[in-house]
Amino acid sequence: MNSESTTSFVALGAILSGIAKPDHKEIYESATRLKAYLPRAIYHNGWFELANVDQAIASIAKMLNKSSLQEWIEQYQLQEHKPKRVGVLLAGNIPLVGFHDFLCVLISGNTFVGKLSSKDDQLLPLVADVLLEIDPSFSSKIEFTTGTLKNIDAIIATGSDNTSKHIEYYFGKYPNIIRKNRNAIAVIDGSETEEELIALGHDIFDYFGLGCRSVSKIYVPDGYDLDHIFKGLFPFKEVVSNKKYGNNYDYYKAINLMAQTKLIENGFILLKEDQQIASPVAVLHYEYYSDYGTMLHSLNQSQDQIQCVIAKEPVPGLRTVPFGKAQSPAVDDYADGIDTLAFLTQLV
Q1: Which domain CATH number covers 127?
Q2: What 8-state DSSP symbol labels residue 217?
Q3: In what helix (H) or strand (E) does residue 121 lie, and over which residues does it extend?
Q4: What is the pLDDT of residues 255-312, one digit of tens each?
């Protein structure tokens, strides 16, 4: 991948962030089409509220920082080679969730063949249009389809534990990265400030908890007063006004009440004591721990279910990020801890 291509992504990031205005008519028109679509995204997918779409774009723009990209790429041996056609099965759980795979495939000099999710089939093609106007040389290396992936040399896919089995059946013969269900967790030690617990609210509620980096469970020390958690989460109370989220809240409240399951609730989030890491939308699992070391051992036994850990201090053996940063991954923070760019550079 040459430096001009890296520069093109930096330019894309600047335009997405609003720092730089497009200086050519064609780029301006592509960027305008993207911007015009954003308010309509919520009608296409009820989970894609404008604030969430804006957040996803801002996160991408931050990722495309010049120094960050250069430091990232310098870690790899990127050589000119005949491009491999890399099929990417795109998820649609949060806006532009497949952008990092898009970036990795193109930065590695390969051809991106993306199968779009019906839940998000507009945003990434519109971002790609802006990139193509910045750098037309990508035109032969970007393809989108809503049909079957054909004539591919490798596959990257993100799905549930169930769908991953079907993906492995159909595409297992290709070099592959097949990601499964994962969630973020938070470890509370009792010393957190009110500001940190408010920041935890972003880790729980951003994108309505639909992302693989969304906190689905918290671990709290024995005797911890959960009112501290509720106080931190209170600023996010309007989340329940989203129809889809509100429906989930009402449904899981009714289901658990009928089952006589103990719940702690405040009108917009249901806290349920549960050993399972994954939780439904509008439900936050919690678990008490008496011994920190024993709890860490348990977490390490469940690494394949954990995307990252939110905590004040690094958690040995697991990727740890500060409160409020779960949804702001760096460019080298790979999903499931699998180095996507290393995988792609080895296809040559």
Answers
A1: 3.40.605.10
A2: E
A3: none
A4: 999 999 999 999 999 999 999 999 999 999 999 999 999 999 999 999 999 999 999 9
